[in-house]
Amino acid sequence: MSSEPHAPDATASPAERRAFGRAQRQRCALGQWAQVPQPDAGDRDPLGWLKASNRGRVPELVPVRHGRMLVSPFTFYRGAASLMANDLARLPHSGIATQLCGDAHLANFGFFASPERALVFDINDFDETLQGPFDWDVRRLATSFVVAARDRGFKPRIGREAVQQLAEAYRDRMRAFARMDTLEAWYARLTSQTLLKLGAEDATELAVIKKARRSTSRVFADSATETVDGRLMIRDQPPFVYHDARATAREIKRFRAGLPAFLAQYRASLPPERQRLFDRYELHDVAVLTPGAASCCCSWPTARIRCSCSARRPASRCSKPRWARHRTQRRRASAWCRASGSHRPPVTSSWAGPRDRAGAASTCGSCAT
Length: 369
Prior knowledge:
alpha+beta; three-stranded antiparallel beta sheet; about 45% helix; about 15% strand; globular
């Protein structure tokens, strides 16, 4: 009876890693990765998996999550990470495990500032991170390009070419990383300047990068906060951002009990020099935040709070640190919902295309379900 090769540890030599990779290729050839789950499999229950994924979420916001997923095939794909995970678990895989994003679709990549304030392009969502075969993330990312291309009405060729370029770029970068020493690979990053060089100063990319550079903490504070009785407060945008008055008793109790411990644990996780920066800010306000389609109505306290903080200095120089904001903040205008006859946030989402937004703006998220 043959035994499976043991995965190399962090100190393995390049030769040992290559030997392990070749052994895994013998166990699972590339052709096997083309297999797909059978839709009519007797034990495959997509609706059951979706219902199961709602466990632990705020019940009142589950209809909002469903409404977001109903906007388009791509928004459904965004919110159905658990379905794809169940399918992938039934298929052959590389057997080479790493720490996955867990939801590596194209909309979960974007610009953000590093701790050194450099503008980098990378994965920006780790709500569903887990250990697993590296190819699960690659497959989900590649599929997202195909779904998005179809959703936008592009020709099939566009989706195929996007996936081919993605696979080739991934292969080339993995080969480059394999030749780097440990520190070089550790500090490798894709900055805005690197993207501009790759795009040959593409006008569209340049506009996106300039917009990202303008999205500073001060701009965020101006748009997401307001002054109430001389105090800086988070602006309500129900049902996506709201205060205690709109929260359930269970939410209020959980937030108030867990917030001091959360802030203390976060501070303890910082290097000493950043603890000193952290101590220059004080807590002003806490609100409930509903993140994106996949995380919508999750009951994780750290994913559903936003703190509006100001440094202990004159209000005119107030700023807000990155730790106190959530990347999935969505500012949605209230729209008239024909189904309920009231003003409510529409189904449309910031990741939907123009065609989706035009068709969904007349019905709110709750009524869409």
